[in-house]
Amino acid sequence: MIEPHAPAPPGAPPPWAGPARLPVRPDTGRFLVLACVFVCAACGLVYELELVALASYLTGDSVTQASVVLSVMVFAMGIGSLAAKRLRRHAAVAFGALEALLALVGGCSAMALYAVFAWTGDWGGVWASGPRWLLVAFSLAIGLLIGAEVPLLMDLIQRIRRQDAGGAVADLFAADYVGALVGGLAFPFLLLPLLGQLTGAMLTGAVNAIAGGALVLGLFRRDLTHRARWLLLVANLAVLGVLATATVLVDDFERAAREAVYGKDVRVALQTGAREIALTGGTDGRPLDLYVDGRLRVSGRDEDRYHEALVHPAMDGPHARVLVLGGGDGLAVREVLRHPGVRRVDVVALDSAVVDLARRDPALSRLNDHAYGDARVHVSTADPFRRLRGPAPVPSYDVVIADLPAPGITASTKLYSEEFYGLVRRVLAPGGRLVVHAGPVSARPHVFWTVEATLRAAGLRTTPYRVEGRDSGSGDGRTAGASRAPRDWGFVLAARTARPVLGLDPRGPRPATLTQRSLRAEQRAAEATRIGGLAASTLVHPRY
């Protein structure tokens, strides 16, 4: 007989881990616990993906954001598992409290991150900036709470029916991994397209709270004191109330946040998958601005300086057939069509929604001179890399204009790779020219000269140049608006055989913002910033 204060024999469960008093049969109770593991795992993975997606949307650097979120979460899950050892004496009530807190933190994380982004500025600064650390804080908090789940669930399932530890772990992990699969598929194919990031995260939090609360208050209620039952019930109802209120107010919140990001003059706001497109101004004499994913892509204040500098030097030579990569706004096409002798313009746009706006919005179509109404213009929506690599024969072009997002955005990095420029080189006619928008020279000279080095590595001869904007510009180097960086745009003109001479077609139109003399001065200004010895960027080793 074991004395009351004698140590338990090896392998015996501690006194607080005795059989649970269940209202159902043990097999049913075990199934319910595993079902809760399945649901909680699905919710946990949705929280992870939602943080990665939102941070990538706000910064454009998906590789960095995914690495930060996932590594911090995995680390925190380990710490959470260790910390949960102290909660095993009260596994049921601890699990219920953890799930309520996880539902609140995970469900509100997207709204909190977007609010900080909208009302404090962009995320392009140093890692000490508030939004970046808030991302780390949410990743850490959610990881801690997810990590604490498994030890507590292990205790609960063992209290239903004792079995060997290996078998119990196998059952829990099987339910956990299958739930993660469902959550991982539900996020991109169901939650994101149908509900959006904010509402999707809050709905996930509500499901999480209901699953955790129902398991503890329903299956293990006899293990709880009267006070604990009421506290858990009130906590779960409060969490559901907060999430429901936020869901009801999400449209008002998005409008207020959109005004904080874009200003109060928002005329059009579209959500296409994970991308947000907004138009401001363009009426009553106000300049038109086009934003994509919170970044100003077109500013009516000085878009002419950018597009004239991008297009006209490349058109100083044969230009019967022109390929425009990107440029869905139609503004580069407008400049191309000003040149006599253009017979065909093929546009490979990144986003059909931008092309649709360029065709139908009165202000934007007026700004691009209704370029898409010209019979010589043929538009397709595709990934330029896949389009150029496709099996169908691609005709030779006299001019290729790469009007693409700056290479600092992860999604566009492959479009600034040696492999991509090799594909472009194949479609250039023998005397053809390629022009590339390579980001701001003064703010990001390393990136600019890496683009130039990558073009040379692809077998092209290059002539770099830059133009200044009228005002200080945004961080991606193409856009207008307030920024910490001086405003300029960097370009690289390239050809297959000889180094192209920077000039303007004497038989072509006279650009309003460019002259032969100013171009030569801008070429010298760009060359003065040259950084030598840079390696080319490739698909397997991106260097931006």
TrEMBL record:
<dbReference type="GO" id="GO:0004766">
    <property type="term" value="F:spermidine synthase activity"/>
</dbReference>
<feature type="region of interest" description="Disordered">
    <location>
        <begin position="502"/>
        <end position="525"/>
    </location>
</feature>
<comment type="subunit">
    <text>Homodimer or homotetramer.</text>
</comment>
<feature type="transmembrane region" description="Helical">
    <location>
        <begin position="198"/>
        <end position="218"/>
    </location>
</feature>
<feature type="active site" description="Proton acceptor">
    <location>
        <position position="403"/>
    </location>
</feature>
<feature type="binding site">
    <location>
        <position position="275"/>
    </location>
    <ligand>
        <name>S-methyl-5'-thioadenosine</name>
    </ligand>
</feature>
<keyword id="KW-1003">Cell membrane</keyword>
<keyword id="KW-0812">Transmembrane</keyword>
<dbReference type="InterPro" id="IPR030374">
    <property type="entry name" value="PABS"/>
</dbReference>
<comment type="pathway">
    <text>Amine and polyamine biosynthesis; spermidine biosynthesis; spermidine from putrescine: step 1/1.</text>
</comment>
<dbReference type="InterPro" id="IPR029063">
    <property type="entry name" value="SAM-dependent_MTases_sf"/>
</dbReference>
<feature type="binding site">
    <location>
        <position position="307"/>
    </location>
    <ligand>
        <name>spermidine</name>
    </ligand>
</feature>
<feature type="transmembrane region" description="Helical">
    <location>
        <begin position="230"/>
        <end position="250"/>
    </location>
</feature>
<feature type="transmembrane region" description="Helical">
    <location>
        <begin position="133"/>
        <end position="157"/>
    </location>
</feature>
<feature type="domain" description="PABS">
    <location>
        <begin position="241"/>
        <end position="496"/>
    </location>
</feature>
<dbReference type="InterPro" id="IPR036259">
    <property type="entry name" value="MFS_trans_sf"/>
</dbReference>
<keyword id="KW-0745">Spermidine biosynthesis</keyword>
<keyword id="KW-0472">Membrane</keyword>
<feature type="transmembrane region" description="Helical">
    <location>
        <begin position="63"/>
        <end position="84"/>
    </location>
</feature>
<feature type="binding site">
    <location>
        <position position="329"/>
    </location>
    <ligand>
        <name>spermidine</name>
    </ligand>
</feature>
<protein>
    <recommendedName>
        <fullName>Polyamine aminopropyltransferase</fullName>
        <ecNumber>2.5.1.16</ecNumber>
    </recommendedName>
</protein>
<keyword id="KW-1133">Transmembrane helix</keyword>
<feature type="transmembrane region" description="Helical">
    <location>
        <begin position="169"/>
        <end position="192"/>
    </location>
</feature>
<dbReference type="InterPro" id="IPR001045">
    <property type="entry name" value="Spermi_synthase"/>
</dbReference>
<comment type="function">
    <text>Catalyzes the irreversible transfer of a propylamine group from the amino donor S-adenosylmethioninamine (decarboxy-AdoMet) to putrescine (1,4-diaminobutane) to yield spermidine.</text>
</comment>
<comment type="similarity">
    <text>Belongs to the spermidine/spermine synthase family.</text>
</comment>
<feature type="transmembrane region" description="Helical">
    <location>
        <begin position="91"/>
        <end position="121"/>
    </location>
</feature>
<dbReference type="Pfam" id="PF01564">
    <property type="entry name" value="Spermine_synth"/>
</dbReference>
<keyword id="KW-0620">Polyamine biosynthesis</keyword>
<dbReference type="InterPro" id="IPR030373">
    <property type="entry name" value="PABS_CS"/>
</dbReference>
<feature type="transmembrane region" description="Helical">
    <location>
        <begin position="31"/>
        <end position="57"/>
    </location>
</feature>
<keyword id="KW-0808">Transferase</keyword>
